[in-house]
Amino acid sequence: MCRCREGRGNDAETPWRRYGWSIVLVLTLALLGCSGDDESDLTGTWTGTIQDSVAGTGTVLFTFSQTGTTVSGTWQFTFQNPVNNSGGNLSGTADDPQIALTLFAAQPQACSFTVAAEFDDDDHFTGTYTGFNCTLLPSGSLDVHRQ
Fold this sequence. Notes:
Blueprint: H1 15-35, E1 44-52, E2 56-67, E3 70-79, E4 86-95, E5 98-105, E6 112-121, E7 124-132, E8 139-146
Antiparallel strand pairs: 1-2, 1-8, 2-3, 3-4, 4-5, 5-6, 6-7, 7-8
């Protein structure tokens, strides 16, 4: 004996099936909207300490401006012996958590540097640097905080 359901319509039209995809879409969009706040922005003034292979312990001052992942600004290394002080302009990228910078020395005879660093929170990063375009090739580490 066959039991047919006449006049009831399609069983696929239960409320879950009717609205389920809408709920999934709304939850997906909400999660995607939250993920955009994870990018760190370097814009501002940052200071910290550096340990240099040639000049010893010193301080660093960065002033950053950031648009998207593109970074520009200025830098200053200061040491106990002023002969080792240097500064200039910088450019690079910051794509959380990675930071890659090139520090261009203002003085032609001074070293320029490449920096590879990483955010460990929005107001702190650490990394290493290596000199280029100079007689001695200093290298070192830096530990920097937002002011």
